[in-house]
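Practice set, problem 2.
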Amino acid sequence: MSDNFSAEVSSRICQHMNEDHSSAVGIYVQAFGGLMEATSAKMLAIDSQGMDLMAQVSGEDVPVRINFDHELKDSEDAHQTLIAMVKQARVKSK
Protein backbone atom coordinates (compact mmCIF):
# COMPACT_ATOMS: atom_id res chain seq x y z
CA MET A 1 0.00 0.00 0.00
CA SER A 2 1.38 3.42 -0.85
CA ASP A 3 1.88 6.06 1.83
CA ASN A 4 -1.24 7.82 0.56
CA PHE A 5 -3.30 4.73 1.34
CA SER A 6 -2.48 3.75 4.88
CA ALA A 7 -4.50 1.05 6.60
CA GLU A 8 -6.53 3.83 8.25
CA VAL A 9 -7.37 5.54 4.94
CA SER A 10 -8.27 2.21 3.33
CA SER A 11 -10.46 1.30 6.30
CA ARG A 12 -12.24 4.67 6.26
CA ILE A 13 -12.98 4.49 2.53
CA CYS A 14 -14.15 0.87 2.75
CA GLN A 15 -16.40 1.57 5.73
CA HIS A 16 -17.97 4.54 3.93
CA MET A 17 -18.51 2.60 0.71
CA ASN A 18 -19.96 -0.45 2.47
CA GLU A 19 -22.28 1.58 4.71
CA ASP A 20 -23.38 4.36 2.34
CA HIS A 21 -22.77 3.05 -1.18
CA SER A 22 -23.21 -0.72 -1.07
CA SER A 23 -25.03 -0.71 -4.42
CA ALA A 24 -21.98 0.94 -6.04
CA VAL A 25 -19.73 -1.80 -4.65
CA GLY A 26 -22.05 -4.35 -6.25
CA ILE A 27 -21.84 -2.48 -9.54
CA TYR A 28 -18.01 -2.62 -9.40
CA VAL A 29 -17.96 -6.43 -9.12
CA GLN A 30 -20.52 -6.80 -11.89
CA ALA A 31 -19.13 -4.27 -14.38
CA PHE A 32 -15.39 -4.41 -13.69
CA GLY A 33 -15.04 -7.81 -12.04
CA GLY A 34 -17.16 -9.61 -14.61
CA LEU A 35 -19.41 -11.22 -12.00
CA MET A 36 -22.84 -10.31 -13.33
CA GLU A 37 -24.39 -13.01 -11.13
CA ALA A 38 -23.11 -11.37 -7.92
CA THR A 39 -25.95 -10.57 -5.53
CA SER A 40 -23.92 -8.37 -3.18
CA ALA A 41 -20.38 -7.25 -2.53
CA LYS A 42 -18.20 -5.69 0.14
CA MET A 43 -15.11 -3.53 -0.25
CA LEU A 44 -12.28 -5.02 1.80
CA ALA A 45 -9.33 -2.76 0.93
CA ILE A 46 -8.25 -0.02 -1.44
CA ASP A 47 -4.77 1.09 -2.45
CA SER A 48 -3.28 3.30 -5.13
CA GLN A 49 -3.43 0.49 -7.71
CA GLY A 50 -6.90 -0.97 -7.13
CA MET A 51 -9.47 -2.37 -4.74
CA ASP A 52 -10.12 -5.76 -3.18
CA LEU A 53 -13.76 -6.80 -2.95
CA MET A 54 -15.65 -9.86 -1.76
CA ALA A 55 -18.67 -10.77 -3.88
CA GLN A 56 -21.52 -13.11 -3.05
CA VAL A 57 -22.19 -15.49 -5.94
CA SER A 58 -24.63 -18.37 -5.44
CA GLY A 59 -24.17 -18.11 -1.68
CA GLU A 60 -20.37 -18.30 -1.89
CA ASP A 61 -17.73 -15.64 -1.18
CA VAL A 62 -15.70 -14.83 -4.29
CA PRO A 63 -12.65 -12.52 -3.96
CA VAL A 64 -12.32 -9.88 -6.67
CA ARG A 65 -9.41 -7.55 -7.42
CA ILE A 66 -10.21 -4.56 -9.63
CA ASN A 67 -7.29 -2.48 -10.83
CA PHE A 68 -7.68 1.23 -11.51
CA ASP A 69 -6.86 2.80 -14.87
CA HIS A 70 -4.27 5.03 -13.18
CA GLU A 71 -2.33 5.18 -9.92
CA LEU A 72 -4.36 7.08 -7.36
CA LYS A 73 -2.66 10.06 -5.73
CA ASP A 74 -4.73 10.35 -2.57
CA SER A 75 -8.14 9.77 -1.03
CA GLU A 76 -9.70 12.60 -3.07
CA ASP A 77 -8.45 10.96 -6.26
CA ALA A 78 -9.97 7.70 -4.98
CA HIS A 79 -13.28 9.46 -4.36
CA GLN A 80 -13.41 10.94 -7.86
CA THR A 81 -12.26 7.68 -9.49
CA LEU A 82 -14.89 5.58 -7.68
CA ILE A 83 -17.62 8.02 -8.76
CA ALA A 84 -16.40 7.94 -12.36
CA MET A 85 -16.35 4.13 -12.33
CA VAL A 86 -19.98 3.92 -11.18
CA LYS A 87 -21.03 6.37 -13.90
CA GLN A 88 -19.07 4.40 -16.50
CA ALA A 89 -20.64 1.12 -15.36
CA ARG A 90 -24.16 2.57 -15.49
CA VAL A 91 -23.61 3.83 -19.05
CA LYS A 92 -22.29 0.40 -20.11
CA SER A 93 -25.34 -1.36 -18.67
CA LYS A 94 -27.85 0.69 -20.67
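Problem 2, part (b): a different protein.
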Amino acid sequence: MLTCNEIRPAGAWDDSRAADAVVLDFDGRHRRRLMMTGQKGLAFLLDLPKATALRDGDGLVLQDGRTVRVKAAAEPLAEITAPDLRALVRIAWHLGNRHLPTQLLGDRLRIRDDHVIRDMVEGLGGTTRAVEAPFDPEGGAFALHHGHNQDGQHEHPHRHG
Protein backbone atom coordinates (compact mmCIF):
# COMPACT_ATOMS: atom_id res chain seq x y z
CA MET A 1 0.00 0.00 0.00
CA LEU A 2 1.36 3.37 -1.03
CA THR A 3 1.54 5.91 1.78
CA CYS A 4 1.81 9.70 1.91
CA ASN A 5 3.18 11.33 5.03
CA GLU A 6 4.65 14.51 3.55
CA ILE A 7 3.01 17.59 2.06
CA ARG A 8 4.69 20.05 -0.28
CA PRO A 9 3.00 23.46 -0.21
CA ALA A 10 1.48 24.88 -3.38
CA GLY A 11 4.17 26.69 -5.34
CA ALA A 12 7.00 24.69 -3.75
CA TRP A 13 6.84 21.85 -6.28
CA ASP A 14 6.23 21.37 -10.02
CA ASP A 15 2.53 20.47 -10.19
CA SER A 16 2.81 19.76 -13.94
CA ARG A 17 4.60 16.55 -12.92
CA ALA A 18 1.82 15.31 -10.64
CA ALA A 19 1.15 11.58 -10.92
CA ASP A 20 -2.54 12.12 -10.13
CA ALA A 21 -4.90 14.53 -8.37
CA VAL A 22 -7.47 14.30 -5.60
CA VAL A 23 -10.43 16.68 -5.68
CA LEU A 24 -11.64 17.58 -2.19
CA ASP A 25 -14.06 20.09 -0.72
CA PHE A 26 -13.08 22.26 2.25
CA ASP A 27 -13.98 19.64 4.87
CA GLY A 28 -12.27 16.90 2.86
CA ARG A 29 -9.05 18.93 2.81
CA HIS A 30 -8.65 18.80 6.60
CA ARG A 31 -7.29 15.34 7.21
CA ARG A 32 -4.81 13.26 9.12
CA ARG A 33 -5.37 9.66 8.03
CA LEU A 34 -7.56 8.56 5.13
CA MET A 35 -7.57 6.21 2.16
CA MET A 36 -7.62 8.31 -1.01
CA THR A 37 -8.04 7.57 -4.70
CA GLY A 38 -6.94 10.04 -7.34
CA GLN A 39 -8.85 10.99 -10.48
CA LYS A 40 -6.69 8.56 -12.50
CA GLY A 41 -7.22 5.75 -9.99
CA LEU A 42 -4.02 5.98 -7.94
CA ALA A 43 -4.91 4.68 -4.44
CA PHE A 44 -2.87 5.57 -1.36
CA LEU A 45 -3.11 6.11 2.38
CA LEU A 46 -2.74 9.68 3.63
CA ASP A 47 -1.02 9.22 6.99
CA LEU A 48 0.08 12.51 8.56
CA PRO A 49 1.33 13.05 12.13
CA LYS A 50 -1.52 15.49 12.82
CA ALA A 51 -4.65 16.76 11.11
CA THR A 52 -3.63 19.25 8.46
CA ALA A 53 -5.55 21.73 6.33
CA LEU A 54 -4.60 20.97 2.73
CA ARG A 55 -4.70 23.84 0.24
CA ASP A 56 -5.43 23.86 -3.47
CA GLY A 57 -2.16 23.09 -5.25
CA ASP A 58 -0.48 21.29 -2.36
CA GLY A 59 1.41 18.12 -3.26
CA LEU A 60 0.99 14.86 -1.39
CA VAL A 61 4.35 13.09 -1.61
CA LEU A 62 4.05 9.32 -1.85
CA GLN A 63 6.68 6.97 -0.41
CA ASP A 64 7.79 6.06 -3.96
CA GLY A 65 8.57 9.74 -4.73
CA ARG A 66 5.55 10.51 -6.87
CA THR A 67 3.36 13.47 -5.95
CA VAL A 68 -0.43 13.80 -6.02
CA ARG A 69 -1.90 17.28 -6.49
CA VAL A 70 -4.66 18.53 -4.18
CA LYS A 71 -7.48 20.27 -6.07
CA ALA A 72 -10.11 22.26 -4.20
CA ALA A 73 -13.59 21.19 -5.32
CA ALA A 74 -16.24 23.77 -6.14
CA GLU A 75 -18.98 24.00 -3.51
CA PRO A 76 -22.00 26.23 -2.86
CA LEU A 77 -20.86 29.54 -1.39
CA ALA A 78 -22.21 33.02 -0.78
CA GLU A 79 -20.11 35.82 -2.21
CA ILE A 80 -20.38 39.06 -0.26
CA THR A 81 -19.79 42.58 -1.51
CA ALA A 82 -20.41 45.93 0.14
CA PRO A 83 -20.84 49.53 -1.06
CA ASP A 84 -17.44 50.55 0.36
CA LEU A 85 -14.41 49.21 2.22
CA ARG A 86 -15.69 50.36 5.62
CA ALA A 87 -18.90 48.35 5.19
CA LEU A 88 -16.97 45.28 3.99
CA VAL A 89 -14.63 45.43 6.99
CA ARG A 90 -17.64 45.74 9.32
CA ILE A 91 -19.22 42.66 7.72
CA ALA A 92 -15.92 40.76 7.98
CA TRP A 93 -15.77 41.62 11.68
CA HIS A 94 -19.27 40.20 12.24
CA LEU A 95 -18.36 37.00 10.36
CA GLY A 96 -15.19 36.63 12.44
CA ASN A 97 -17.11 37.27 15.63
CA ARG A 98 -19.20 34.21 14.73
CA HIS A 99 -16.05 32.13 14.02
CA LEU A 100 -17.21 31.55 10.42
CA PRO A 101 -14.58 30.36 7.97
CA THR A 102 -14.24 33.27 5.53
CA GLN A 103 -12.31 33.58 2.29
CA LEU A 104 -10.85 37.06 1.80
CA LEU A 105 -10.76 38.17 -1.84
CA GLY A 106 -9.82 41.84 -1.57
CA ASP A 107 -13.05 43.56 -2.61
CA ARG A 108 -15.32 40.66 -1.62
CA LEU A 109 -15.68 37.78 0.83
CA ARG A 110 -16.86 34.19 0.46
CA ILE A 111 -18.51 32.03 3.08
CA ARG A 112 -20.40 28.77 3.01
CA ASP A 113 -23.91 29.49 1.86
CA ASP A 114 -26.19 30.05 4.87
CA HIS A 115 -29.51 31.91 4.62
CA VAL A 116 -29.30 33.23 8.19
CA ILE A 117 -25.86 34.75 7.59
CA ARG A 118 -26.96 36.11 4.19
CA ASP A 119 -29.81 37.92 5.97
CA MET A 120 -27.37 39.32 8.55
CA VAL A 121 -24.99 40.52 5.80
CA GLU A 122 -27.82 42.22 3.92
CA GLY A 123 -28.97 43.84 7.19
CA LEU A 124 -25.45 45.28 7.50
CA GLY A 125 -25.69 46.83 4.02
CA GLY A 126 -23.91 44.07 2.10
CA THR A 127 -25.00 42.17 -0.96
CA THR A 128 -24.80 38.41 -1.41
CA ARG A 129 -24.95 36.17 -4.43
CA ALA A 130 -24.76 32.41 -4.73
CA VAL A 131 -21.61 31.04 -6.39
CA GLU A 132 -20.07 27.61 -6.97
CA ALA A 133 -16.33 27.89 -6.37
CA PRO A 134 -13.46 26.29 -4.44
CA PHE A 135 -13.52 27.43 -0.81
CA ASP A 136 -10.16 28.40 0.66
CA PRO A 137 -10.87 30.41 3.81
CA GLU A 138 -8.30 32.31 5.83
CA GLY A 139 -6.49 30.01 8.27
CA GLY A 140 -6.63 32.40 11.20
CA ALA A 141 -4.01 33.28 13.76
CA PHE A 142 -4.37 29.92 15.48
CA ALA A 143 -5.13 27.88 12.31
CA LEU A 144 -8.14 26.19 13.83
CA HIS A 145 -10.51 24.34 11.55
CA HIS A 146 -14.10 25.44 12.18
CA GLY A 147 -13.18 26.25 15.78
CA HIS A 148 -13.12 22.59 16.81
CA ASN A 149 -10.28 20.33 17.85
CA GLN A 150 -9.78 16.79 16.56
CA ASP A 151 -12.13 15.41 19.22
CA GLY A 152 -14.94 17.70 18.07
CA GLN A 153 -14.76 19.87 21.18
CA HIS A 154 -15.17 23.60 20.66
CA GLU A 155 -11.94 25.53 21.15
CA HIS A 156 -11.66 29.22 21.90
CA PRO A 157 -8.16 30.46 21.11
CA HIS A 158 -8.76 33.73 22.99
CA ARG A 159 -6.25 34.58 25.65
CA HIS A 160 -7.59 35.62 29.01
CA GLY A 161 -5.58 37.36 31.55
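Answer key, part (b): The CA atoms of residues 12 and 62 lie 16 Å apart. The domain at 3-72 is CATH 2.60.260.20 (HSP40/DNAj peptide-binding domain).
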